[in-house]
Amino acid sequence: VKRVLVPLAPGFEEIEAVTIIDVLRRAGIEVTVAGTSPSPLQGSRGIRVVADLSLDQVDQADFDMIAIPGGSQGVENLKKHPQLLALLGEFTARSKYIGAICAAPSLLSEAGLLCGKQVTSHPSVKAQVAKTALYSDERVVVDGKIVTSRGPGTAMEFALKLVELLMGKEKVAELKEALVSP
Amino acid sequence: VKRVLVPLAPGFEEIEAVTIIDVLRRAGIEVTVAGTSPSPLQGSRGIRVVADLSLDQVDQADFDMIAIPGGSQGVENLKKHPQLLALLGEFTARSKYIGAICAAPSLLSEAGLLCGKQVTSHPSVKAQVAKTALYSDERVVVDGKIVTSRGPGTAMEFALKLVELLMGKEKVAELKEALVSP
């Protein structure tokens, strides 16, 4: 079984977080939602979601991938969390997948993980991300183990790309039919 | 200010519920999430969401539209809720918008609200819905005050159509840019 970690901080973008969790679970992937603060955590549009556990309890050894939702305030809150930066270092060192959508690529950028990489992000953080990365306007970009995407409107394509990387294209085709996704 | 009611029952489809709530709130619409049981309510893929209030406390006079997410178990649970059926009758009598996505059009069908109407739904409930309605395979269908759609993969288009009906096309264009929606 593949396992994916989704970190959640107050101000997370709800469509992005929920689309990642829902689509990956539909694919048979074990998704753990780890919160930076006590549950429920409130998203950028006031939706309150209960996390499975605290981010402080997470061991990187339990996961094949981390997928980080956006929401500018949520990403700012994640940047302040020392455990998350340590986890990103461990995921990188062990060559595990790191996914980031919307404002979240700016977190990877500040952590020094995007140097010379092909990436995309929400247009609002493009200038920051483009400083060290090779910026693309594609809706989903994969470069090695780094997977990036742009916003709530690309969340479904992003989640399906994560499924493809972990489970293959056949699983994606099967999911698309049930989701009524183009 | 426009006001929209989103009823939530255990087993709701998370992408559909959250996309409706998030996109409508981005448009400046007041969205009330009303649960059939104590919060948090668990969705079809195990995501737990906190409702704003109980469906029993809802007064139809406070709303311009009801938008019902799918999830087959969630919709079955909504069908058992007497208050929801009463609300649908009142929304119909007062010619207010009724939106339903995925399995939720089957609820409208059983309530007798789709007779001779152009509608769509998730393919899995097509046979049931098509008994009395004029079935379409379009991704979003509007017929008078009834707005229907197909699944998680059409949730963004559905939510944007609801925004268009309440707030106009300019608001939709503005949202699409921020959402990075095609």
Structural summary, described in words:
Two copies of one chain form a homodimer. Chain A is built from seven helices and eleven strands. With 182 residues, chain A is of the alpha/beta class. In chain A, helix 5 links the parallel strand 8 and strand 9. The first copy, chain A, is globular and about 40 Å long. In chain A, 53% of the residues are buried. At the A-B interface, helix 1, strand 4 and helix 7 of A face helix 1, strand 4 and helix 7 of B. Strand 4 of chain A pairs antiparallel with strand 4 (48-50) of chain B.
Main sheet of chain A: which strands, in order across?
A: 5-2-1-6-7-11-10
Rounded mean pLDDT score of chain A: 97
Shape call of chain A: globular
Largest sheet of chain A: 7 strands, mixed
Q: Radius of gyration of chain A, rounded? A: 15 Å
Identify the quaternary structure here: homodimer
Tell me the strand percentage band of chain A.
Answer: 15-25%
Biggest interface found:
A-B, 35 and 35 residues
What share of residues of chain A is helical? 25-40%
Number of contiguous helices of chain A: 7
SS-derived structural category of chain A: alpha/beta
* Topology, number of strands of chain A: 11
User: What distance separates the N and C termini of chain A?
Assistant: 27 Å
Q: Low-confidence runs of chain A (pLDDT<50, min 5 residues)?
A: none
What is the H/E order of chain A? EHEEEEEHHEHEHEEEHH
Highlighted features:
two-stranded antiparallel ribbon; alpha/beta; 37% helix; seven-stranded mixed sheet; 182 residues; 7 helices; homodimer; 11 strands
